[in-house]
Design goal:
single chain, NE0471 N-terminal domain-like, 6 strands, 20% helix, globular, binds zinc ion
């Protein structure tokens, strides 16, 4: 038994047509993540900034197709995943909590207040 009880991803699927990442979870949830939204949410210091400094995403209005094309996913320890993007970027660690909080499936969207 682990003291860390957050659901963990068990498999993933990259839908190139819909440009969406699907993750299956240990609690049987299937989460959906639009590639572009995922890239905009990159939490790394380069993209999101660090120590009060804005990251590069703060000054961008658009991203290139390479920047928003997901080619693979790698596990990080037991708490997160790193997406590998076509432009070579792979420093963003998305924790399981963050991914679940970003899930765009109908069930999760309804539970969340609508932003934008
Ligand atoms: Zn990044
Ligand atoms: Zn969901």
């Amino acid at each position: 038994m682990s003291q860390y009880s957050h659901p963990t991803p068990t498999s993933f699927f990259l839908d190139e047509e819909k440009r969406t990442l699907y993750l299956s979870w240990s609690d049987e949830h299937e989460s959906m993540h639009d590639w572009e939204l995922l890239r905009w949410a990159c939490p790394c210091a380069w993209c999101a900034g660090e120590g009060g400094q804005p990251g590069v995403l703060a000054s961008k209005k658009t991203l290139t197709p390479e920047e928003t094309t997901l080619v693979n996913i790698e596990p990080v320890g037991r708490y997160g995943l790193t997406p590998i993007w076509e432009d070579g970027h792979k420093t963003g660690i998305y924790t399981y909590e963050k991914l679940r909080a970003m899930c765009e499936c109908e069930v999760c969207k309804k539970k969340r207040p609508v932003k934008r």
